[in-house]
Structures are given as C-alpha cells and as structure tokens.
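README: folding subset

This subset contains proteins for which both the sequence and a predicted structure token string are available. Records are stored as plain text. Below is the entry for Transient receptor potential cation channel subfamily M member 2 (1273 residues), shown exactly as it appears on disk.
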Amino acid sequence: MSEAGLESRLVHTLAVNTARPSKHLFLSPSFQRLALASWIKENICKKECCFFEKDGSGDVCKCGYAKTDHTDEAIKPEDFTGESWNIHRHVREAPTDAFGDISFGGLGQKTGKYARVSTDTSPEILYQLLTEQWKLSPPNLLISVTGGAKNFYLKSHLKNMFHRGLIKVAQTTGAWIITGGTHAGVMKHVGQAVRDYAMSSSMQGKIVTIGVATWGIIHNRKALVHPEGCFPAHYLMDTGNQGQLSTLDSNHTHFLLVDDGTHGHYGVEIKLRSCLEMWITRKWTGVTIPVVCVVLDGGPGTLNTIYNAMLHGTPCVILEGSGRIADVIAHVSGLPLIRVTIALIQQLMKKFFGQEYEQFSDGKIIEWTKKIQDIIRMSHLLTVFRVSEDYHGDLDVAILQALLKASRSSEFLEVECWNRQLELAITWNRVDIAETEIFTEESQWKSSDLHWAMFSALAGNKPQFVSLLLENGVSLRDFLQEEETLCELYTQLPSCFFLRKLAKQAFGIRPRACREQGEKISLTYVSDVVRHLLGKFTQPLYPPSTTTDQLNMSMDETSLSLREDSPETQRDPGTDLFLWAVVQNNKELAEIAWEQCRDCMSAALAASKILKKMAREGSDADDAEEMRELANHYEKHAIGVFTECHNSDESRAKKLLVRMSHLWGRTTCLRLALEADDKNVIALLTQIWCGKLSVENPVWRVLICMVFFPLIFTGFLLKPMKPLGCWSRLMYLYTSPQVKFYWNIVFYFAFLFLFAVVLMIDFQSMPSAGELLLYIWLLSLVCEEIRQLFHDPDGFGFRKKAKMYINEFWNILDVLSIVLFLIGLAFRLTTELFYLGKIILCIDFVVFCLRLMAIFTISRTLGPKIIIVRKMMMDMFFFMFLLSIWVVAYGVAKQGILIHNENRLDWIIRGVLYEPYLIIFGQFPKNIDNTEFDMNSCSVNATDPLKPKCPVLNENQSPVFPEWLTIIMLCVYLLFANILLLNLLIAIFNFTFEEVQDNTDKIWKFQRYELIKEYHSRPAAPPPFIILSHIYLFIRSMVLRRPPKIYKEFKNELNPTEDEELLTWESLMKDRYLVSARQEQSQSTERRILDTLIHFPLSHQVSQSTKALQWIMDSLKSQGLPSKDTQSRNETPDSFRNTSEKGSGFHVYSRQFSYPNSKLTRFPVPEEKVPWEVLIIYLNIIKYYFFPPQSHQLPLLRKNPGGRTGISGRGALSRLGPNLSVELVFEGYVDDCRNTDNAWVEMTVLNIHLDRKSQVMVDINNTVTSSVLQREE
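--- output ---
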C-alpha cells in the first residue's frame, strides 16, 4: 500500500475512534477537523451533472447549472452521445466538497455546522454525522416545523406564543427542531424564536435547530465549497440580491444541504428529510423518539406533507391564524365529514389563498378535499392550536396534547402507552394535563409502576407531580424500601451547601467530580453530616453501612454500642424524604414530605435547627436568608401543631413535648427547640414549674405555706393533683421548682444582707462569726456552681456542657463573683493587703447584687427588661468607643493649649479624660475663660500636689492662652458630644427597646424555660443548707457508685405501643392544623374578593358583560354568521367524527390514495362523490388488473355497492364483483384497501353446530360451497 493510502487509512481509523466517547483520548482541534473531513469524504457524497445539454437559449444545462459549472467530461461526454438529458441517468455521485463550520458574522458571530449531502444518502449516515461527528446529544423529541416557504405575516400575539411555546418545548425536552433552513417563511420564524432564546440571559443551554435545505436553491453557496472543508466558511446573507434563490438562516445551528444535481428546483430535500425523521423516530436503539409536526401557513405542498406525516402516524399541530392551508384545515377540523364538501373547501381556499386560488384547477381542489377529509378523519393525530382572548396557553401545551392523543392510539402496549404519556407530562412539568388526560378511570396504576415517575419528579424538582403521584397511589414506603433509591436521590441533589459538605465528607472532592466519577453516596455519610448540623447530642439517623470500609475500628465499636443500646427502629419514608428536601432548601418538596412524616413536630424543629446551622456556615448571603425564612416557616408549623395538641389534650401535649424521638437521633422536641433557639416553641408547661402542686394555687398561698407548712394539711392550697399522705405533701411542697426558687430568693437576700453587714460593720482583722458564716455560705454557692457544671442529664459531654455553661450570662457573673471573693479573701488574710482585700470584696458585692437581677426572669413583665439592659450595655460599649475619640481629641488639645509641660500623670489623666467627660454632664471648666479664672485654684509651678498646674502666664500673672479658641473648641465639643452623640445613643437605645419589646413573649418563654430547667434539677435546700445535699450527692455517686437520678420531665422514652398511639394522635392534630391553616388562607382570599366587589359591585360587572356579549352577537349577525355555526364550531372533534361515521357509512380504506402493492394512485374521491348517484367527471381514471383479465370476465363489470373507489378493474383481487371471505364476526360488504369500482370483498357468517360423531372434515367444503352459491343468486 502506498504512503498516501496508509495515511488516509490511519486518518480514517482515528476518525472512527474520535466518534466514540473515550475518557483518555484528547485530540487537538486541528486533528479533529482532519478526522471529520476524512469521515465525511468516506461517507458523504454530493451529486453533479455529468452530461451538459442546453436548455433553450444560453449556456445553461437542463440541470439548471451554467456551462462553466460543469466539468470538461460533462461538456464533451463520450458515453452519452445522442441521448437526451435525464436526471436518473446523467447525474452521478461524487465525494462532497462543502462541509465544515459556517460563520454568519454580524452581531454575536453566529456559527454552525453544515454539510452538502446527496439525496441518496442513508439516514443512518446522516444520524451518525449529527451525533457522532457533530457531537449532538440524541433527541428526546423531534419537532418538524413546516409551512409557508415564503414570508408571511403573523399576528404579534400568535407570533409571541409560537416563539415562546416552541422554545419551551425544545428547552425542557432536549428536542431537535427540523426546518427547511432558509431565511424565509416559517423557517425565519423558527430562527427568530431561537434568536430570542439566545438573547435571553435567564435561559441557558443551546437549542438544536437543524435546517434541511436544497443545495441548488442556496444563494452564495460557492462560499461554502472547499474540497477539504471550511473551518469556518464565511457566509454572507445577501437577501437583497438573492432573486429566486434563498439564503440560509443564521439562527439555525446545523445545516444538511440536500443535493440532487440540479439548480433552482425547490422541494428536493422533502424526501430525504422525511426519511431522516422516520429513521430517527424508529426503535433502532430500543427507545422510541416521539415526533410532532408543527404547521404554519403553507400551500399544497404543505398539505401533502401533513397528509403523508399523518399516514405514518405523526401527530400534527396546526396553528390557526397563521394563514392559507393551516387556516383551511383549522376551520374544517371541527366539522363533520358530511359538511366538508368540495364547495366548502373552494370557498375557504378562495378566502385564505386570495389571488393564488385562481391558479388551482378543479381536479386539484377535488384531490385536496379528499386529503383534507382524510386528515380530519384521523382526529387523534390532528391538534388545532387556537388563540383567543380567554385562552392564554402556549404552543407547548398543544404539542403535549397532540403527543398524548397520538400515543393513545399507537401500537404500544397499554402500560407502555400510559408510561410514555406520563413521561412526556413530567418532562414538560404539565401536571394539569397529567391530571386530566393521564390519571383517569381508564388508566389503572400500581404503586410499583409509578416509582420511576416519582424518582424523576423528585430529582427534577417537580413538586406538583410529587403530590399528584402520591394522590394516585404511590407508596413512599415501597418507593424508598431499597436503600439505593435514597442514596441515588442524595447523589442527584442540586448544587447546594449540603451536597458540598456531603461530597467532602464522603470523597474529599467537589460535587461535580463526584458525579463525573459516578460515585454513590452512602447513608452513613449523610448521617454524619446531618448529625453535625443537628448537634452531637443526637445519635446517627442511619446505621453504619455494611459495605463501608472499616477504617476506624473505634468508630465501628462506638456505632455498634449505639445499636446495642437502642432498639432497632424502622425508618419512616416520609421523614427520609423530608430530610432530603430540607437539606437542599427546597420549600415545596419539603412541605409535601412534611405532611407524610409520622413525627411531624420533631421533624419541623429538626428542620429549623438544620437550616439555621447551614445559614450560619454557608457563604451565600441570599441562600442563607432563604434558609432562615424556611427555618421560621417550620418553627411556625411546630407551634401550630403543638397548639392544636394542647387545645385538644393538655396531658398528651406535655408528653409529646418531652418524648424521645427515635427517628431524630433519640432527642426530644424540647431539646431540638432549645438547640435551634426556637423561642416560640420553648414555652415549658406551667405544671413542671409547679411540680406536684396544683397550677391553680396563687403565689401568695404558696409563700405562706413555705413558712407555715402545717397549712398544707388543712386544704389551704387548692386541690392537690391526687390524694397524698402527710409526708408526701410536705416533700412535694419543698421539692417543687417554684418553692425552690422562692427559698433561694429569700436566702439570697439574706446572703447579701450578711455580706453588707460584714463589709460595713463587722470587718475585723480576725474573721468574726458572721464573716465565717459568710465564707461557709459562699462555699455552698461554689459547690452548687460545680454541680451545675458537671450535671449532664442529656449526655452532652463535659466539653459541650462547659461551653454551654460559659455562654450563659448569669453563669459568667457567678464565676466572676466567686473569683473576686476568693481574691479578696486571700488579700484580707494578709496584713499588707488587708485594705485592698476589703476593696475587692466591696466591688464583689456589686457583682453579687447584679446577679440578683436573674430573679426577674420569671416575671413576664420584668424578664424581657433585663434583656433590654444587657443589649443596651452592648450598645453603650460601642458608643463609648465612639465618644472616646471626641473626648481624647478635645482633652489633649485643651491640655496642650492651657498647660505647659505638665509632668504629673494623675493630673494629665484628669485634664485629658476626666474633665472632658464631666463637661458632657454640665460641669464646665473655669480655666478656659479669663473672666472666671482664679489664681488660687491652681499651682504656678505644680508644686502643690492637690492643685492643678496653672495655665501659661505673662509678666502680669494673667493667662496668655487664646481665649477665643478655647471657647470655640468647647462649643464644638459640646455640639458633637452632648447633642449629636448623646441623641444617637438615645436613638440606639430606643431601637433596642422596640426590637426586644416586639419579641417580649418569645424572650420570656425562653428565659422561663432555662430557669425552670435549672431549678427542677437543683437540690431542695437553699444555700447555705444546700451543702448538705451536695455531700449526699457526692457520697451517692462517688462512694456508693449509684447512677444519677433520671428526670422524665424533660426526656421520656415511651414504650412502643404508647409511642405509636401518641404519634397517631399527633398526626390527627397535624391534619387539623393544616385544614385550619388552609381555611384561614381561603378566608383571606375571600376577603380580598369581597373588597374587590365592594369597589366594583357585581351588578355593575354583570351589566358590563351583558353589553359586551350583546355587541358581539350584533356584530356576528351583521356579518351573516348564524349562531348554529358557532355552536357547531365549539363541538368536539370526537363527537363530529362519530356523527360522520354513523351518518355517512362510506368506505374509507377503499379510497386510499396509494393502491397496495403497486405504485398506482387512485383518483381522489371526496365523501360527497362516493355514491354512484352523484355525477362526477373522472379525469385520468385508471383501470388496474394485478393479473391479466380473462375474456369471459370483461362483460361482467359490476359496480361496487359501497360507492366509488377512484380506480377501476379487478385490482389485486382474484375476480370481478364480490370476492367472498369467511368471517365469524361480520357479514356483508368489507371496506378493504384492495377494493375497486368493479371488484370488492364481501364476508359471510357461518353458524355451524358440530357434533363430535359427525364427519366434519368430509362435509365442510360442501357446506361452504352451497352457501356461497346461494348468496350469488
């Protein structure tokens, strides 16, 4: 083999390889172009004339090309001497010389791909060119747009709806749009739609628009020719000089330029385009690609396209109002066939075609009438898109309806047919059509049959379809029964914060890389990330996967211990789906899934916690705000359900609040609300605060009983919860959190009183008895703080518990007061630091007094005010920083101007900071004004330590400082410090007050919960007697090694039966809450309607509508259009088809254009010309005999009893007249496609009762023969 041949072979091999997807093969663009050129030359051909014969005058061949466009062999052929030019003989194929990239220039530099192909090119080769060489993804839908090839006018409303609907279909389905490809007519409108889509910044992706045009009619096509391909070819759209030719449309992405070797002949591409469309839609890959034909305007050629497409089962969508043949079909589509007459078609064609109608012959009108009647008869394939003022649907709805109608009548199995319809509806997110057209009584769906649809709706974010599927029998338990389904859903998560953390946790890579590598996400990783978001106080939601690599043995042992400690619980599919929707911040899907949750309150609170955590850790501010809004939404849901529960059954509601949820990491609603900082939910029940005492007891009664405890045996306290013994009553009184709190307040006041007495009266060098008691009292307080630090009933762990302890403001004051007391105590025990120790203890007394404010947290009125004070203190801190700038600036300037070289630090601080600060409160200095200056108030040389240094003096001992400057500086300082900054501080305080005041109830409930929880676990005895309880607890836990007491008031694990009953009741309350919420929403809607009616009374609206309808009726009558026609126009096509079939009874298959097993075409016989009694002039009637006729059959010509068929003779039948056949269902004339005017098929019914003993096989032929002979007579 030659070197050139080897090179060509190598290039071809690599070209084939590049067409196949490979993960490791990366080729340069230049080599890819070389490979593409090699493949196209190998597989794609063009056509060229090989025999030049003049066509009349001039050097133009009968092929249409000029003499200069022919080769020398074609001008002087040796093989065709003496022959006449024939397209089948004198046009040959040759390797194509026009392919590559096409650039249209202009704004945006639009580029595409093109190839010149022969009319005989295989559709399979063209599909390979599109998908393998041009790298197009296989389509999910094929949209063939046909119609007028010349420019026509579309109304702006219809044009916009066509553009919007076409692009919406192509974008949502990944469809290919196939047109004629030129910049005229319907192709131009499609191009404009694609252009508008490309210019829209809100849309992404590229619409595949393939133009299949005739090569011989393309203007400026020489720019596309190059033997090695053009990359790119610069094409000029010169519409002004194109003449009878056409230019390519710049908005198409790909062009197939069909060449038959002629020039100037339109319609060459129709056959190849039809073959390509049919080949794409066949089941060559096991998947049927639907195709739909969209028609705008059009002439007779478009009518043939519609007719042939519908004969092949392709649904067609006709746009009414687009013009010509489209309007003709649209106007008769709703009429019965008996009314679609030749006269009507003539009238409509004359109306819509205008002057063009004069060119139509009577024969053509009859043929077109017949075709239109056949088109109307196939109503399941015909959809008319009508635009009216009260209809605002787009073209995409009409296309979907057309495909749904066609799929019902297809040859698919019933289940496959319904699945295909549902797939189309989901792809386009048309839940309204799915509800009315698919989920009907005719369709019988099983839950398992819809699992694929549920997955598609969830992964595609179609919440309305998820609701529809759940309503129609999809079981979430069956759908999520396999763990792989949920794992795949997490793999298909959209790009979000959770997916990034999940991918990093699982693989340490980006989410996109995870998808590209095909990695699946285990639920173990999901559980780890969710536990991080919920908090470490929860246990893993999902057990560790058995397929996960056991890299960390300690982790495995821990998880195993967790599984052993906790009973095995079955997952709730609603909870799984709700969590999947929440982590992606999808409100619609989360709302649907929340309604399916069993433990709805815990789910709502967990969602609030997760969303708030993601909002804090996320980097996107907009996403964080949406997460916080959704968190508040589910906080309201939790409040609403709990309110319904509390109103229905208070005891159950309390139990629901503290029950341990196995579905959410063995935590409680109360704990989740605390972690999520949901102050609305943390409204702990008053019964826990009162303990075993009745909640109806007023506070004063409880206070009296605390002192005079025998009163509890007299009934002084109202109604105990149940009859109790004397000792039980006494114990329940003093162990109540309410009583503990009151005793602690009393003894805290006593502690402060003792502390004050010691500091002011009894502070000796040797501690007195009162001071020693104070030390013991403080020791009990220290022990209590240590107990609170280590008391961990929820299992937080010391680190988490210590962090929570420090984060509490009152605990900080406790620690600070204790530390200061210990420091002061250490100092006062030494002789040198005795007085300093007392000073520190005095300061500590202030801190202890501030701690007293915590008692007001139980008050609904004063509790929020403490928060206001705390927030104002923070505001004050930032304000002091701002104020210090002015104070220091003025103080340094004043000190430098007045005093010369002051070296005493204490007086420098006084002059720079203290005096400017006092000026704010009205204490103005006297040394800045000569009129008030006193020499006795200062020391000249700073010799007196009790007096400030005098200002700079002159010889007369008077100040020399610029008095005008110091006064101006003081005025400016007072203006900014006193007026501006102080009013700013007041405004800040006012804002803080209003902000907290608006949330007073929330803050009070949250503080009250914290206080009740603290005193619920606190020992009953107040300090200092509480130290006895501490000694008891120490002996119990450290010496006796007994486990700590478990309090069920805040966390209670129910038995399975009780837990199931409680969740069932909660689900019922949730349904009540949702119903009431929807009623409130509907009532608000009704209120808006009523407001509208108040402004616009109904009588006024009715009168206006009546006037408008009357005007419409008058206009219609003036135009001569009776109401009966309007009524018939509004009837459904199905009813007309039934009426037509029942009324006419004419044969249909016997009048098909193409006669079977032949290339013959019948004469078109419309409905009205079928009966023999109706006169009709046959033009070019064909007499056809499949077998040569015998002489004795010629005089026996008989007329078809069903009427005319459009062809005479015997046709493909065996004899003239009736051709009998046996059928067990039908008897009489048969509408057979082989029927002719003189030969037809008839059937007879034989009702034979056979006896097993009879000789059936002997007599059957005689019986049939005698029956046939009797019928002929």
